[in-house]
Amino acid sequence: MSSSPGPKRATYQDLLALPDNVVGEIVAGELVVSPRPAPAHATATSALGADLNQAFHRKPGGPKGPGGWWILDEPELHFHGDVLVPDLAGWRRERMAALPSTAAFELPPDWVCEVISPSSVRHDRMRKLPVYAREQVAWTWLVDPIARTLEVFRLDAAGHWVLLQVFGEDSGESVRVQPFEAIELDLARWWEGQAPG
Asked: CA-CA distance, 4 to 149, in Å (whole number)?
């Protein structure tokens, strides 16, 4: 009695064959294809990235902020067969002194941010968060530009996500958020120009 083969596992060649107007990832052998970000998503990602880059994306110290991080847009992460592309990710320079010469990163970041949309929310929460936990990413932010919220998760010693804080429009004009609490973030900038959800 012969058993039928299981579903074909996606490969990196499958990712390379995708058109430029989509983002491809591989999670648990499955190819996941998402459309390019809508304006609300792109606005939130761009504003958040600009805020963090100005203060953190450089060597430690200096008048513009504490520095000490690499903050990157849409880095390609390779983890034991999984290929993920978070909207933003950050590595402390004490863990990664220089950027790799390869196109992908195998060292898990210290922080990731997923800007969720109605089409990506299940994938981001149900598929990607467990991979980030398995790889010991210390912090994950989930930003919802439609609901205008920021959820801050910290990985505990047992490898489980703990929701530390939820910020929204009623959180005040500026907030301090781990692991970047050295500066104040103006969340209203992230939703600027967008109609309320």
From this structure: 46
